[in-house]
Amino acid sequence: MYSKLGLINLIPVEILCDIMKFLDRNALEKCQLVSHHWNIIIAQNAFQLPLRLLGELSILHYFENSDFRTYFYTQEPSEGQSVKLDEITLPLIRTSVFYKFSININENFNKLIEKLDEISASERFQVPTSASELFRVLTSSCERFRVPLSSSDCFRALSSAYEFFQAPPGLPSA
Amino acid sequence: MATESANGVSSPELNERDVVITTNDNRNFTVKIGVARVSKTINNMIQDLGESLDLSSGIPLPNVDGPIFEKVLEWCEEHKNAPEIKVEQDPHTRERKWFTMTEWEEEYFRKFLSHLWDLAMAANYLEIPSLYYYTCQKLAERIKGRTPEQIREMFGIEDDLTEEEKAEIRRTNVWCTY
């Protein structure tokens, strides 16, 4: 038994990867904390190991690490399926807002609403809830984290969110 | 000593013939060819050797020891007529789909729970996809839902990360909740 002999580090990386492919991203992150060896294996093989669901993103954290794209993806809606705002759009926008800008925002949210309407109207993603609802959630989130947003920052953040839709993070760009 | 050659490698009669397999601790196993060729590695050897295969003097397996090979053979016997397994993954998350195991297979892994790593290594070397991937799944099952401390304890892994390194990993894993 390898564990008793302390020989587990001799297990080929190939086998460890094949085991890790059965795990989800949450379990993998715990594996990274197991040992130096495991952390390196996961970091080096991140491109073939499972990714994180974008819907799992949380506003409680924000990105400092530009490699975050490796760790999640957006799910393409299958035909006839509408994407719920909460699952995809909202975390994406939060992500963009909090990641891209360390932010100075306060007024003129009309443009923000306009931009949201644009996203709602895009043929690729049917956004089922109203733009004003998203707006409310977004602003209350900003309030909660005491992040003042300027209108132009909102605008840029949403543009970049929209760009993300064009090239979903985590998927190879053509 | 009678020397038999393996003519017509794919014939059903050949599957009923015996072949001797020698593990690295010099143990000889007499195995039906139909069972032995569940291992692609052994099957390739049989095919490559073709007519020159000496069924009685045996096939050497320098990377597998007797006790483990015995367990592997148990699997091969049960799976000699099983179809190839299909390894599938979620196209979005790349997460592998979990196999559904039969009662026999579940029991097999219960019995050899403390030998999963050895089984994975042997199945990898012997190229037995069913045993290999199922064992990997079993190991994943043991990892899943456990904390880093529990995983270390279970597998006897030394905690060689500094607190700074752990903090850094946690920081990069921005959603981590532990």
From TrEMBL, chain A:
List each copy of the F-box domain by range.
Answer: 9-44
Q: Which SUPFAM superfamilies match?
A: F-box domain
InterPro entries xref list: F-box-like_dom_sf (IPR036047), F-box_dom (IPR001810)
**Superkingdom of origin organism:** Eukaryota
Name of this chain's protein: F-box domain-containing protein
Give the organism, scientific name: Acrobeloides nanus
From the broadest rank down, the organism's phylogenetic lineage runs: Eukaryota, Metazoa, Ecdysozoa, Nematoda, Chromadorea
Report the Gene3D superfamilies cross-referenced here.
1.20.1280.50
From TrEMBL, chain B:
**What positions does the domain SKP1 component POZ occupy?**
19-81
Instruction: Kindly give the InterPro entries that the UniProt entry links to this protein.
Output: SKP1 (IPR016897), SKP1-like (IPR001232), SKP1-like_dim_sf (IPR036296), SKP1/BTB/POZ_sf (IPR011333), Skp1_comp_dimer (IPR016072), Skp1_comp_POZ (IPR016073)
Instruction: Kindly tell me the pathway this chain contributes to.
Output: Protein modification; protein ubiquitination
Start and end residues of each SKP1 component dimerisation domain: 130-176
GTP-binding found in the keyword field = no
Pfam families for this protein: Skp1 (PF01466), Skp1_POZ (PF03931)
Q: Which UniProt keywords apply?
A: Ubl conjugation pathway
Q: Tell me the GO BP annotations in alphabetical order.
A: ubiquitin-dependent protein catabolic process
Give the protein's function: Probable essential component of SCF (SKP1-CUL1-F-box protein) E3 ubiquitin-protein ligase complexes, which mediate the ubiquitination and subsequent proteasomal degradation of target proteins. Regulates cell proliferation during embryonic and larval development.
Which family, according to UniProt?
Answer: Belongs to the SKP1 family.
Q: What is this protein called?
A: Skp1-related protein
